[in-house]
Amino acid sequence: MPRLAFVPRQLGVLLTAGALLATTLTAAAAGPAGAAPATTPSTSAEGAGTSQAEWARRATASYDALQDYLYLGDGQHHLYQEKYPREDTDNAFSYLWPVREATAATIDLTVVPGSGRTYDDDVRDRFSALQAYWNTDREPPGYASYVVPPLGGGGDLFYDDNAIVGLEFVRHYRLTHKASARQRAEQVFEVLTQGWDTDASHPCPGGMFWVDASWTSIRAANVTGLATELAAHLYEITGKRSYLDWADRLYTWNRTCLRSPEGLYWNDIGLDGTVNPTLWIYNSGAMIGAGTLLYRATGDRDYLESAEADATAALDHWTAENRYFDQPAIFNSIFFKNLLLLDSAAHDPRYRAVVETYAEHTWASNRDPALGLFRFPPSGGGPYDPSYRPETLEQSAVIQTFALLAWKSRDYRFAA
């Protein structure tokens, strides 16, 4: 299940690992109807010591391609389409997750040296687009997985979606000091508290439910780690003790219930106690970031040492035989940003090196030079697949990774 906790929302169900692998192989063989013509991926030497200025150029070029082919513009509420080219069966707009990632990519470009105010209007447009998913028909309001009426029919509220959107409001606040951004992040966290399992009779009681829906009841590592990060940020910003209490509660649950003996994070646990041992790189990333933020907010070195231990375990596992090359691009981006967040607190040259290796590989192997878009298999990661349409989600992930490599190291504290 390359997207067990971030499975495309339109499916409405969790896919098993075998089912998604079969889908990937079928799509790679046949390709979707109406897909753009296959082209040869661009080539470039890996490990060539690419400069920060060149990473900035690549990030900008990739962003321009995103805006040219996937952005729907002012007349369409600043929203995005899911894939390029559009097919008749596609939704009018993308789901929430890709818009969040386009927002993150745009914010990341504002931190690139020399960008100045170039992207200010674009950042404003991204947050305007997110408002199209804000569901005020529930209490408290939260972000639906699809645009709400009158633009669309809305969708389930995924707690992981809300956590990552909340984190972008925090980053926006940290970079601009706009009170409205902090206030929305606090509103989002109020939604997340509703996702905490309060039934003490459940095996490993506690943890965050993945979605507010009756069709699944898993408590997942990703949302619990991401919610920890949001709570830790809010404690650092506001000084409210309740946020620290929540952050520690969430963090401790993930480490107690879903951390493997190797120091990685299993994906989820059911209400019957069944653990899904699937590993995704971003689950480690969220916990690395959570430990870093808790250290930064409290000065407690136990959190920092835990983050470093999680980073070591993740690097040992995912860089072996370059396993992480096959992880979804967006999962890698989340991992990288949290890894460099840790680097801002405890520098280790391995951290940036692993990001550079992946970024060089992706630029050389997955870019369609005719479009400037990146092509992956349906899983969202792996070798160049000319049969599968480029997506807003993966394009935004690649932009984030390239932009991060263009930053000054002193700015890594804004990475996640």
How do the helices and strands line up, and which of them pair or pack?
Layout: H1 17-30, H2 52-69, H3 96-111, H4 120-130, E1 134-135, E2 142-143, E3 157-158, H5 159-176, H6 179-193, E4 211-212, E5 219-220, H7 221-238, H8 241-257, E6 266-269, E7 275-279, H9 281-298, H10 301-318, H11 329-345, H12 349-365, E8 367-368, E9 373-374, H13 392-406
Antiparallel strand pairs: 1-2, 3-4, 5-6, 6-7, 8-9
Helix pairs in contact: 2-13, 3-4, 3-5, 3-13, 5-6, 5-7, 6-7, 7-8, 7-9, 8-9, 9-10, 9-11, 11-12, 11-13, 12-13
Structural class of the helices, strands and pairings?
A: mainly alpha
For the largest sheet, list the strands in their spatial order: 5-6-7
Radius of gyration: 20 Å
Query: What's the rounded overall pLDDT mean?
Result: 91
Specify the number of helices. 13
In short:
By secondary structure, the protein is mostly helical. 50% of the residues are buried.
Would you mind describing this structure in some detail?
The protein contains 13 helices and 9 strands. It has 416 residues and is mainly α. Strands 5-6-7 form a 3-stranded antiparallel sheet. It has a two-stranded antiparallel sheet with strand order 1-2. Strand 1 and strand 2 form a beta hairpin. Helix 2 runs antiparallel to helix 13 (392-406), helix 9 packs parallel to helix 11 and helix 12 (349-365) crosses helix 13. The chain is globular, with a radius of gyration of 20 Å. It starts with 16 loop residues before the first helix and ends in a 10-residue tail after the last helix.
